[in-house]
Amino acid sequence: MANIIGAVTTSHIPAIANAMANKAEETPYWKPFFDGYPPVRKWLNEKKPDVIVLFYNDHGLEFFIDKKPTFAIGVADEYHNSDEGWGIATIPPVTGESELSWHIANSLVEDGFDMTICQEMKVDHGLTVPLSLMWPGNEYGHVKVIPVCINCEQHPMPQPKRCYALGQAIGKAIESFDSDMTVAIFGTGGLSHQLDGEAAGTLNRQFDLECMDKLVDSPEELTTYSNLDLVKIGGAQTVELNMWIAMRGVLRGKVTELHRNYHAPISNTGAGLLLLEHEMPK
Amino acid sequence: MMTANDPTQPVPGTYLFDGKMAKKGYGLNKMCYSFNEQAARDEFNKDPDAYCAKFGLTEAQIKAIHERDIIGLLQQGGSIYYVAKFAGLLKLNMQDIGAIQTGMSLEEFKAMLVKRGSGEA
């Protein structure tokens, strides 16, 4: 049985990558955001999870709307980043974990989650920014990453309760994997923000803080929201909360909050960071 | 047309990118998706009209492209994630296009975000 040791949630917006590239971490604008990360990095470097299962959404790098998977999972040995249209420098390849990926894919389809299964998958800022944040200098090559991509771009999108159930099914799959490897789960994106329309710039600090509390202690409450509720409460892209909810579904055992940070705004976004420790259910 | 007056849009100031919009904006979004490639960005910059024609954009979409009209692009079926690639080609970031869409100056838009982020507004 593989051991799920904990989880991290983090924002993944491209402006973070730019701030790191421009060495702006210590500027007054960015410092309150980046100051949240050292305890999480320390935990990851001490616990050294073998595998990260990372929930993210693609923003039009790998998937176009010609064929838009609702849920997709990568099963490759390696993943590559690519130009997303802004000419930003790409980052080194991300290492995969094919055997566990296929095990999860098999188990998910058996359980009624009909995944799109990807042997090639370009990974965009939704996946790469969190890795760059956790391992500065892009020193993440040693950790194996399993990308799980959730449609947050085109309605109809999977609802929060379905994303939570997906997480639960992934947890069950990991637990049934015959290995002593250690696994951490990343939920990326969010929290409240809106990029488009006359309502661009919508942010809801109070809601973000409530979400972080509920995510730790009462995640089922978050699954009562619909995606339309999230759009109304926090702005159009608040649906990225679904990746956090999916992450939390994976954690079936005892969850302890070790660290949190919240800062808003970074660019247009409320940025939450959580580090959760997980004890496997007996 | 404000979405506040658009009965098909349930959230004021918001253009939900659903099946109807995805169909309407298919060619526009496909063009913007192509901007992931530098060669495509170069080709667009050389002759925007010819490049728009290649993807079968409608007159209203071409007009919005010409006028850098972000709201117009959304109304014509643009998805913000693809419109962002067009904005990138124009060297505009998310805060720049936030200001454009809300009719604020960049400084006003940033100040509004700071207020909301701190919980003041």
Q: How does this model look, in words?
A:
- The complex is a heterodimer of chains A (282) and B (121).
- Chain A is of the alpha/beta class.
- Chain A has helices at 14-21, 31-34, 38-47, 98-110, 125-134, 160-175, 205-217, 219-222, 227-234, 241-250; strands at 3-10, 51-56, 71-74, 78-79, 94-95, 116-118, 144-150, 182-188, 254-266, 269-279.
- Chain A has a single domain, classed as 3-Layer(aba) Sandwich (Protocatechuate 4,5-dioxygenase, Chain B), CATH 3.40.830.10.
- In chain A, α1 packs across α5, α4 (98-110) crosses α6 (160-175) and α6 (160-175) packs parallel to α10 (241-250).
- Chain B contains nine helices and no strands.
- Chain B has helices at residues 19-24, 26-34, 38-46, 48-54, 59-66, 70-75, 80-89, 94-102, 106-118.
- At the A-B interface, α9 and β9 of A face α2, α6, α7, α8 and α9 of B.
| Beta-strand residue fraction of chain A | 15-25%
User: CATH homologous superfamily of chain A - what is it?
Assistant: LigB-like
N-to-C series of helices and strands of chain A: EHHHEEEEHEHEHEHHHHEE
Look at the structure and give the mean pLDDT of chain B: 93
What are the SSEs and their pairings?
The complex is a heterodimer of chains A (282) and B (121).
Chain A: E1 3-10, H1 14-21, H2 31-34, H3 38-47, E2 51-56, E3 71-74, E4 78-79, E5 94-95, H4 98-110, E6 116-118, H5 125-134, E7 144-150, H6 160-175, E8 182-188, H7 205-217, H8 219-222, H9 227-234, H10 241-250, E9 254-266, E10 269-279
Chain B: H1 19-24, H2 26-34, H3 38-46, H4 48-54, H5 59-66, H6 70-75, H7 80-89, H8 94-102, H9 106-118
Helix pairs in contact in B: 2-7, 3-4, 8-9
Quick summary:
The complex is a heterodimer of chains A (282) and B (121). Chain A has 282 residues and is of the alpha/beta class.
